[in-house]
Fold this protein.
Amino acid sequence: MAGPDFSADLATLDMSLSSIEAVIDPAGLKVEIAELQEAVSAPDLWDDTDNAQRVTSRLSALQSDVDRVEALRSRLDDLAVLVELGQEEGDAASMAEAETELTALQRSIEALEVRTLLAGEYDEREALVTIRSEAGGIDAADFAAMLLRMYLRWAERHRYPTEVYDTSYAEEAGIKSATFAVKAPFAYGTLSVEQGTHRLVRISPFDNQGRRQTSFAGVEVLPVTEATDHIDIPEGELRIDVFRSSGPGGQSVNTTDSAVRITHLPTGIVVSCQNEKSQLQNKAAALRVLQSRLLEKVRHDRETEMNALKGDGSNSWGSQMRSYVLHPYQMVKDLRTDFEVSSPDAVFDGDIDGFIDSGIRWRRTSELAAS
């Protein structure tokens, strides 16, 4: 019977899962879980709201890690039994079921293996993503809108909640910029490899002569701040302006000046939010975005200082990292990892896990090579 070499494949999966278990350390996590459960049961836990949220969030995340590893180990053990029985009895149906489960289990273990590579300072955080149109005029604005949809569809595929804070529409089509949050554990560590300049090559739908156009859009990914970050911003350092929210084509969305723009005077950082229902909500959302930008600035300044001490001023972030080619052929290629696919439509519909996984592996390899 033609099919996979189950003995070799099961041994490989067992080795991969054992390596993951060594990194995640379920036994050690269970000790911390027991301590956190005791803390959660304390009657005065919610006297300190910030600490209570930190404890309960940590407990939920650790329990999820343990459950995920144990579920994969159980599935692997069950698969080994299914293969053994199927081979002994010559049961073709059981072997077909085993082959299907083997493929699914390989994908699940590979996904968790990538997750173990997310060990950066803020990798566990939720993500704040900003997309901006760059060179290319109306095509660039349209491309930025395509990227916005791509990331929102990716989050939807994974059932990650998202919240769009601000969208600045271009005059003819597309967007000048958009900022949104992905509210899932490890969203920052996962999406941070998407940061950089994206390039689109296609026959422009906005060109009457049907010429090929190259356009660019930038993606910025920041970690969402938490209460423990202590990013204090004195009111005197802020200039707050209110304006009327607008939609595509400059049409007014609200009849009141509910949109908020905040300028951080010492750094010149400007953020805005117009998608919430009230001026108060927009101000709160804009402040969250500003805090994330300031947190990233602190991290970047610290990293720059460390690189200077090491005598290494190189930094590949922010450079062109992916090409989306729609003409004269169909291809999407990551210029750092060489990972590529020939189905741009699927990519623009949110099928980007292959790019993200290869990006995380590439980043980890680069970090090890630099250390």
The two ends are 48 Å apart (CA to CA).
